[in-house]
Design goal:
By secondary structure, the protein is α/β, with parallel strands linked by helices. Helices cover about 35% and strands about 20% of the residues.
């Protein structure tokens, strides 16, 4: 999201693209994030003073319980998908592929507040079947709805390109964020 001059502050650059099925979905809507990915990689290769860089894909993971009611549900079968992200239709397609369901969908603006009226509307739409959402949205939805309906989020995984495992340069940078003593705080969950 920053210009090339910001590279001087970086220890490592991670260039990320979506899963191939997601890129196909976006291409069908005339959005080509892969083009930008290739251009970013090429630009990094042409900068003499660029820090080390690695590339990765973000792939959908699994449905994860976000509240107690979802934990008690044996088989997630959410009837409502909610997303407040740049490409909500992409999230809805991922959730549908993963669950094998075709839930109703509600796209929210990024950083949307979930007020009382919206929470009541979402609760009514979800019924007892529940809601699937992004991790970011799960925080807001659990805060607004509590255990009124089961809520799951769709996890995402990083797949490092090339080796299939986390490159050592990334591990070393993540190590900088780990606590050095038991009483120190970590920036990682």
């Amino acid at each position: 999201r920053e210009g090339m001059a910001a590279l001087r502050r970086a220890d490592v650059v991670v260039v990320v693209r979506r899963h191939s099925e997601d890129e196909e979905f976006l291409a069908g809507r005339h959005i080509k994030p892969a083009d930008g990915f290739d251009l970013r990689l090429q630009a990094l290769q042409e900068v003499d003073w660029a820090p080390p860089f690695v590339s990765a894909r973000i792939v959908p993971g699994s449905l994860v319980a976000a509240n107690e009611l979802a934990l008690e549900t044996h088989t997630p079968r959410p009837s409502l998908a909610v997303a407040g992200i740049m490409w909500p239709d992409l999230f809805f397609a991922q959730a549908g592929r993963l669950s094998g369901l075709e839930p109703q969908t509600v796209g929210l603006p990024d950083h949307a507040r979930i007020d009382r009226a919206l929470s009541q509307r979402l609760r009514g739409m979800a019924g007892d079947s529940g809601i699937v959402c992004t991790l970011k949205d799960s925080m807001k939805l659990v805060s607004a709805l509590g255990d009124a309906v089961p809520i799951w989020y769709l996890s995402e995984n990083v797949v490092w390109e090339g080796s299939g495992t986390e490159p050592s340069i990334v591990r070393s940078c993540l190590g900088l964020l780990e606590p050095r003593a038991p009483d120190e705080r970590s920036l990682l969950p």
